[in-house]
Amino acid sequence: MAVLIDTVAWVRVQDGRILCARPRGKSIFYIPGGKREGAESDRETLLREIEEELTVLLDPDTAVHVGTYEAVASDVPGGAVVRMSCYTADYAGTLTVSSEIEELAWFSYADRPLVPPVDQLLFDDLKASGRLV
User: Fold this and answer.
1) pLDDT tens digits for 37-59?
2) Cys-Cys link to 126, which of 38, 67, 73, 131 (CB 3.0-4.6 A)?
3) What's this model's pTM, rounded to 2 decimal places?
4) Which CDD domains match (predicted)?
């Protein structure tokens, strides 16, 4: 059985583009978020990861689940599967790269090839719903 990598991601769409982040030392962009630690809930993981990566505070009362996606991890040997639970939420602060993140970018659907397979599934849904240009 394949290893399951359980992640939570923050979906931030503005003007038809989605916020993506490139970690230090990597060439691929990801939807911001990360792996659960211990018995953290989705919401706890989301708040912690986004503060660590983007230095903003999400408002937990505005967090809304928008979908959960699974796909084979392209960068993990042995066919691991990534599960990404996606949430929208309002935030306070200024989006800024942290020690973990090298670059932020606002992607349109045309940038879909620059993100991993699980993120591409989210891109497809956002495009189909008219939220992503």
Assistant:
1) 999 999 999 999 999 999 999 99
2) 131
3) 0.94
4) NUDIX_Hydrolase (cd04690)
